[in-house]
Structures are given as C-alpha cells and as structure tokens.
Amino acid sequence: MKKSPLQHFKQCLEKRHLYFTSQREEVVRRVLSWKGHFGVDDIYEWARHRGLSVGRSTIYRTLQLMAECNLLEERDFQRGYKVYEVSLGKEKHEHMTCVDCDKVIEFQAPSITQAEKDLMMREGFTPLYHSFVVYGLCDECTAKRSNKEKQKVS
Ligand SMILES: [Zn+2]
Ligand SMILES: [Zn+2]
Q: How many whole angstroms from 115 Cα to the centroid of ligand 2?
C-alpha cells in the first residue's frame, strides 16, 4: 500500500527526531488539501479562524519542514515572503503573476523542459531546478488600469 502524504511526513519528522502535536497535524492536513499557492499568513489566518493556538513561527517551520520532506514546493514571486504549493500529483508547470492583485496563473511550457534537455546534451550540465516567472497584469487589472487612464482623460 502506498504511504499517505501525512504518513510520509510523520516518518520524515521521526528521522529528524521531531514530534507531531495534534495541532500541527491539523495544520498539515489543511495544507495538504490547499489548492493553489499560499503563504504563511494564509495558513495563519485559517488557523486563527479555526481557534488553533499555533503561531506564525510554528506555521513557518511546519511549511519549511514539509518543503524539506518534498511535500511542498517553494516559489519566489518577489513579494518579500515565500509562497508554497503542494507538489504531489501536480504536473510540471510555470507561473505568471499579476503585480497588482498577486493572482497566480499556471501554464505548461514544454519548451523550457526541452531547453533543459538541450543543456544536458550540449554542456553536460545537470539541471536540478529552475525558476521562471512572468510578471505582469491579469486581464482584470489590465481593464482596471485602462479604465483609470480613461477617467484621467475625461
Ligand atoms: Zn490582477
Ligand atoms: Zn504552481
């Protein structure tokens, strides 16, 4: 039988001689079912509403550990804080992010995968990971900005 992500995480913690409080387990369960991209504050807000007494630093450390145990991937969207997403069951993808509303849009880019393969062949280089993020304006924010421009003119 395949290990559940939660079991995998527990074993990973055991190896580090760390234990698992029931509150932390609740956080981990929620994080594993989180759709999309999130930061420490998103989880903290959820925990507060839930009435859990876990602080930001505990959440931060939990997310770090989940990333080290390969359950989460860290993304850097130049926001001054780390953004995470659940890596299990997701296909390789890249990101676009809106500089006005922080919306994140995922897309597949086979040409990047191909470029990595080419590097390996040509340069004998072994790519481990890459970071490719397109910064811009989503359709809504594009419309909002052009409305503002129109208002200025009239
Ligand atoms: Zn936007
Ligand atoms: Zn993503």
A: 20
